[in-house]
């Protein structure tokens, strides 16, 4: 576990080439586990840390959205409340019953669904400050972030990602851009994406520029007659100078181009 702030820790694994992070937030009354990775075995170090550090605190699991690499470890926290945006349980069920990611088999322990849901915002408040769970559609319709007022720290889920985001919500461009612009208004000093390193708020600007830039470029290419599989738009065109894109994210970028082509 890596400590990010006085009461915030993170644990990162690799999931199909993507660095993927679960976080633990300790308030005086609650121990929040933000995302449960790809299965109970993978999230076991987080569960062990919580068991030793939570004390008398109530343990609450938060799923930032329904994708497998954020929820498949839910069973490691059997009996605890699982909190998510209200669309998340339905989307997990759809995924388990044969959605786009049906080739990823759930763990033998199953995937407990969130049992506490909310619409736009849910806040935990006590003497240690407030923890805000905020609905941030764009990457997915049920995406949320977790903002810690006292630590001025934003756990971004997949709403922000580095070096580039993955498109996952059909016709979600406008929602995503609106979300990112709203996030920039939060007084956060540190942003921790589920995929990528912790950094300042420049990641929000970078994601907005990428999303808007890709859709505009793909729209122009399509209008000029480019076929779906003939988009010559390298990722570096939409990123700041010097940003390195490995093979995993180069493939994600190619998928994003096709996703945008299908929408514009």
Output the CATH topology of the largest domain.
Metallo-beta-lactamase, Chain A
Question: How can the largest sheet be summarized?
Answer: 7 strands, mixed
Estimated helix fraction? 25-40%
Could you state the order of secondary-structure elements as H and E?
A: EEEEHEHEHEEEEEHEHH
Strand sequence of the main sheet, in spatial order? 1-2-3-4-5-6-7
**Mean residue pLDDT:** 95
Give the strand content. Answer: 25-35%
CATH class division of the largest domain? Alpha Beta
Structural class: alpha/beta
Characterise this structure.
With 264 residues, the chain is α/β, with parallel strands linked by helices. The chain folds into 2 domains: 2-167 and 175-201, Metallo-beta-lactamase, Chain A, CATH 3.60.15.10; 212-263, no CATH class. The chain has helices at 40-53, 68-71, 88-96, 173-183, 202-223, 247-263, and strands at residues 2-5, 8-15, 18-26, 30-34, 58-62, 81-85, 116-118, 121-126, 129-135, 144-148, 153-157, 190-193. The relative contact order is 0.12.
